[in-house]
């Protein structure tokens, strides 16, 4: 899995802790879905896909309920962070969203909020977005790190472990 290999390299650069409890999410295999922990933090990881007709990158995250129907992830059982890795030719980056922002934005289900089973992400290198996409990009950018040229180890540590 390309995104997992990349994630392992990054974690080795920023932490002495090792990745543990790795679990492949079979239902999200197409997006290289995995769950793991590092120290006391738990993570869910995905590889985003570029779509031909819309700006940004698409990623799914859902699970099966008791009736085998797809449903959004629940805030109570969700890991602490969602890592979305973006590869676009020579460009690379990651979104590292804390659970709290995913709850705030209605992505994880909680209470009367249904949640979402997919998300479009917009790295800071994408411009000329429509107003809705631009608004989404604005709330996402604080959780994004461009890893194309060099790694800002301090920011990576903050995003992964703060």
Automatic annotation (TrEMBL):
Pfam families: MepB-like. Gene3D superfamilies: MepB-like (3.40.1350.140). InterPro entries: MepB-like, MepB-like_sf. This is MepB protein. The lineage of its organism: Bacteria, Bacillati, Bacillota, Bacilli, Lactobacillales.
């Amino acid at each position: 899995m390309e995104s997992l290999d990349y994630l392992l390299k990054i974690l080795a650069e920023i932490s002495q802790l090792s990745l543990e409890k790795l679990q492949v999410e079979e239902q999200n295999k197409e997006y290289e879905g995995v769950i793991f922990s590092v120290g006391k933090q738990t993570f869910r990881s995905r590889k985003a896909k570029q779509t031909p007709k819309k700006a940004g990158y698409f990623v799914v995250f859902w699970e099966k309920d008791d009736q085998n129907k797809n449903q959004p992830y629940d805030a109570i059982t969700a890991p602490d962070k969602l890592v979305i890795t973006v590869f676009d030719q020579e460009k690379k980056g990651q979104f590292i969203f804390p659970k709290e922002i995913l709850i705030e934005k209605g992505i994880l289900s909680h209470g009367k909020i249904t949640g979402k089973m997919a998300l479009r992400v917009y790295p800071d290198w994408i411009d000329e977005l429509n107003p809705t996409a631009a608004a989404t990009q604005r709330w996402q950018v604080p959780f994004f790190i461009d890893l194309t040229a060099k790694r800002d180890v301090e920011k990576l540590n903050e995003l992964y472990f703060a």
